[in-house]
Amino acid sequence: MSEQHNVVLLTFPDATAWRPAFEAAQHLPGLRYAAAMERSADGLLEIKDTFTRGAGVATVGSGVLGGLVGLLGGPVGVLLGFAAGAAIGNAAEEHAASEGGAALIVLSPRVPDGGALVAVELRESSPGPADGLAAEHGATVERIDAHAFTEQVRAAEKKAEEDRAADEES
After folding, report:
1. Which residues have C-beta within 8 Å of that of residue 21, sequence separation ≥ 6?
2. Which residues 6+ apart lie within 8 Å of 90 measured at CB?
3. 3-state secondary structure the chain
4. For each of the chain's 170 residues, which pLDDT tens digit applies?
5. How far is Cα 134 from Cα 91, in angstroms, rounded to an integer?
6. For the packed helices 57-70 and 74-107, what is the interaxial angle rounded to 10 degrees?
7. C-alpha–C-alpha distance, residues 22 and 35, integer Å
8. CA distance 28 to 23
9. Model pTM?
């Protein structure tokens, strides 16, 4: 089977059951990002936890690269190069985090009252590991092609931006 880039949704009817599944999901092969959302019985939604594989790598890597380039300018150049590189890497990570937040907003209607949802973005060569995780923790599984989901998120962002612009004109 070829590798699939998916967003795998694990839905829990009971809000207390998501934590062990979330911890186990962090070890799924091909994992890129995981997030857990919980909705109280009265409908209040809360993002309980997130995990990003390789978080901080872009910031540190860009800082080191900037520092190496800064060697040409001496000790002050190294300091300035590292700071500039780290700032650029951090900006890239912040952009990715804001996209993740938009994705969670799009997924929020799928969280049942009194239940929880663990969303996992991963590259799967087989559905077996995620399906096994869901079965072990009593969750239902839904897969969404990551590219199709990205388009849904972009459409929602565009709609929100248009609504905001229309409100400002009013």
Report:
1. 10, 12, 118, 133, 134, 136, 137, 139
2. 58, 59, 62
3. CCCEEEEEEEEECCHHHHHHHHHHHCCCCCEEEEEEEEECCCCCEEEEEEEECCCCHHHHHHHHHHHHHHHHHHHHHHHHHHHHHHHHHHHHHHHHHHHHHHHHHHHHHHCCCCCEEEEEEEEECCCHHHHHHHHHHCCEEEEEEHHHHHHHHHHHHHHHHHHHHHHHHC
4. 578 889 899 999 988 889 999 999 999 988 988 889 899 888 888 888 888 765 444 555 555 555 545 555 565 555 555 566 555 655 555 545 445 556 777 787 888 999 999 999 899 988 899 999 999 999 999 999 988 888 887 887 788 778 788 878 87
5. 34
6. 160
7. 8
8. 10
9. 0.66
Retrieve residue 24's tokens.
Answer: 């186990």
Single-letter amino acid, residue 71: L
Instruction: Specify the residue for token string 């962002």.
Output: 157
